[in-house]
Write a structure and sequence with these properties.
two-stranded antiparallel sheet, alpha+beta
Length: 101
């Protein structure tokens, strides 16, 4: 599996092994941070993209970052693997319904 520089759920930098999530077998996750992924599962599997973006905005605002930086970071969340996979599944479901007609 490919190693990423940013969590593929929230965008947090993965520049320290201590912030990596864990796989089911205890290995470090190469894709996700400790706050979003533990023991091979998402810590909040029901979370929506919109909820993640809201949470990320709050965290970045607490760090007193410039508004443009916050907006860019929040808008980029939708392109992370966790959310791209969900969007692809929805697209496949919609396409399947269309093909039935």
């Amino acid at each position: 599996m490919e190693a990423y520089n940013f969590c593929q759920s929230c965008g947090m930098p993965l520049n320290d092994p201590l912030v990596h999530g864990t796989e089911k077998n205890g290995d470090c996750s190469l894709q996700y941070c400790i706050y979003r992924y533990k023991d091979g599962q998402f810590t909040h599997p029901e979370m929506t993209l919109e909820e993640m973006q809201y949470n990320e905005r709050r965290i970045l605002e607490q760090q007193h970052l410039h508004g443009d930086v916050i907006n860019a970071a929040v808008n980029s969340v939708q392109f992370l693997n966790r959310w791209l996979q969900r969007n692809l599944c929805r697209l496949e479901l919609n396409t399947a319904d269309y093909e039935k007609d």
